[in-house]
Amino acid sequence: SMVNSAEQIVPQNTQLVQVHPIPGSLILDIAYGTPQNFTGQVIYTNPHCFIHQVAFDKLMRAVELTRAAGFQIKLFDAFRPQEAQEKLWSICPDPRYVADPAKGSLHSRGIAVDLTLTDAQGNDLDMGTPFDDFTDQSHQGCATISQEAQRNRFILNGIMQMAGFTTIQYEWWHFNGEDPSLYPLLKDQDAPLPMMG
After folding, report:
1. Which is the catalytic residue, given 64, 83, 148, 171?
2. What is the rounded distance in angstroms from the CA atom of residue 150 to the CA atom of residue 192?
3. CA 1: distance to chain centroid?
4. Dihedral sign, CA of 27, 142, 41, 83?
5. Calpha distance 34→182 (Å, rounded)
């Protein structure tokens, strides 16, 4: 049955791979490794970046498409340990913007990314709001942002969807890579290297 095949898939889905910067193509700006995030706190004391191999392959496809369009990807977050999700939830228990740890974030399953586009020099494109700006202006399809920001979001969405990611309603920067039912929630100890120290 489908259920059994899904259960057989799960054990291999705990393998996270490390994401490294690619000069001129992929910038890592791990927001929770600094106080420059909505909590004002350092969440990852060791801000490595990990993701499942299947989502990594899609991310590399997105990098290739982005480079072909003359831009770079700036990645803010990928795998987020369950412990980090609990910390974020304690600070912002709003399910529109932070997944309830009881249900689990797709970040904690290692299959989601938070990112934006930069120009070739690494300057952020105008997306209408900053990353992790929990307002209506951050919602997909918000028509009240500037024309430039609207166009930039369409470019970002087009690239990410072409690479196999899906969008979510409330955050222009968040993209899901895989079916969450096949990927268990992972803790810091499941990462190849500790992130939370």
Report:
1. 171
2. 38
3. 32
4. negative
5. 31
Tell me how far the alpha carbon of residue 63 is from its chain's centroid. Answer: 14
140: helix, strand or coil: coil
Question: What is the per-residue pLDDT across 76-108, written as a single tens digit (0 to 9) for each?
Answer: 999 999 999 999 999 999 998 899 999 999 999
Tokens of 189: 């100890």
pLDDT band at 15 (very low <50, low <70, confident <90, very high): confident
35-71 tens-digit pLDDT: 999 999 999 999 999 999 999 999 999 999 999 999 9
- Other CB atoms within a 10 A radius of the CB of residue 177 amount to 27
Region of 112 on the Ramachandran plot (φ > 0 left; ψ -120 to 50 alpha; else beta): beta
Annotated active-site residue 64? The verdict is no
Q: Rounded to a whole number, what is the largest CA-CA distance in the chain?
A: 51
Question: Which positions ≥6 away from 120 have C-beta within 8 Å?
Answer: 24, 70, 71, 72
